[in-house]
Amino acid sequence: MSWERPSRRVRELIRRGAEIALDPPAEWLAELDEATLSGPNRQQIAEDPVLAAATKRTNRSNLLGWASANIRAPGERVPADLGEAPLAFARDLIRRGLDESALDAYRSGQGVALRLWMQIAFSLTSDPEELRELVDVSCRSIAAFVDDTVAAISVQMGKEREQLTRGTHAERLETVTLLLDGAPISAARAEQRLGYRLSGPHTAAIVWSDDPESSGDLDRVADLLGSGSALTVLASAATRWIWVPGAPDVVFLRTEVARFPAARVALGSSGQDADGFRRSHLDALTVQRMLARLASPQQLATHDEVELVALLTADAERADRFVKRTLGDLLSADPDVIEAVRAYVASGCNATHAATRTYTHRNTLLRRLARASRLLPVPVEDNLVNVGVALEVHRWRQS
pLDDT tens digits for 29-73? Predict the structure, then answer.
């Protein structure tokens, strides 16, 4: 396809603008991420921390790729972005059973990127003719770059889909998906395809990472859950879905998982038979989404620990207002003071038990509680339930 080069002056303006775009402000990136993760068609991507992180990496790859190309050859047609980030994103989409419709995120990103580029363009020149040519070339360039990239990624997704349908991974993922969707597949047939017994108790886990290079650590963490008896499904390059018979040792897991700081683990509640297989996974998914929603630093969480917090933080903004309104200045207190209140509430307002729980002298605990009372909008004894709940939310979201 022919491509008309702009004038020398406009090529220089494009080069200067691309240098600015190569180092975009954080608020530009945030707006770009929000646009590409918004909308009903992208809800599944936005709620999955691995796919959401892959989307953000792809946004940066596209933005930096286009800007770098226009520094090297301003005004020339920019080749499609087939770097590691967009290709990994395409593979993950297929492995999650999503199709090419998910690529409409590129179109949403295109609109935001074009508007932000216009801000740069209008800062480069006030000459009407130069500006007209600059805007015309920019619009054509960005549109062509996105069109070419979407077309190339669609081809790669087709190849990935073809490869997956040949292997045992596809059969496992398909069978698990049928079970999770409640489809009428017999237990005997499912067990044959999975090599895993559906009768008896199960606990599901989701092991994932925001780092696409950490697949080795994810596999080692998966082994900690029970390499011999567990069912492991590769949900994406950076996500493992796991089921183990019975219930894992959570204390042991917390200690061992800490050796792999890039890995995160969400554990569902234990359940019985095929229905428990499904329910436990959905519970683990709830835990994973809550940790991502709150940007929680906690590396491992169980559904039993966070069920209430997950319910309360479904609307993260309202939950944040509730915590601030309930805890007030206590939020800025020393961690020891906050922990004293949490232990006091958990001990049914028994100071002796709370002191034992926090390994402190009773008098020390009482001093910390007195300090907390001066910071709380309402004394803890008069607002026990709300303070306890707010502290739990704070525990899981604090950095």
Answer: 999 999 999 877 788 888 888 888 889 999 999 999 999 999 999
Angle between the N-to-C axes of helices 104-124 and 49-72, in degrees from 0 to 180, rounded to the nearest 10: 40
368 inside domain:
yes
Residue 206 φ/ψ, nearest 5 degrees: -120, 120
State how far the Cα of 152 lies from the Cα of 157, in Å rounded to an integer: 9
- 108: closest CA among 58, 48, 51, 161? 58
Task: Evaluate whether 201 touches 272 at the Cβ level (below 8 Å).
Answer: yes
Check whether residue 258 and residue 335 sit in a common domain.
Answer: no
For residue 236, the cross-strand partners are 239
Which tens digits make up the pLDDT trace of 167-192?
567 778 888 888 988 887 888 888 88
CATH number at residue 245: 3.30.70
Q: pTM of the predicted model, to two decimals?
A: 0.70
- 207 and 342 fall within a common domain: no
Same domain, 19 and 156: yes
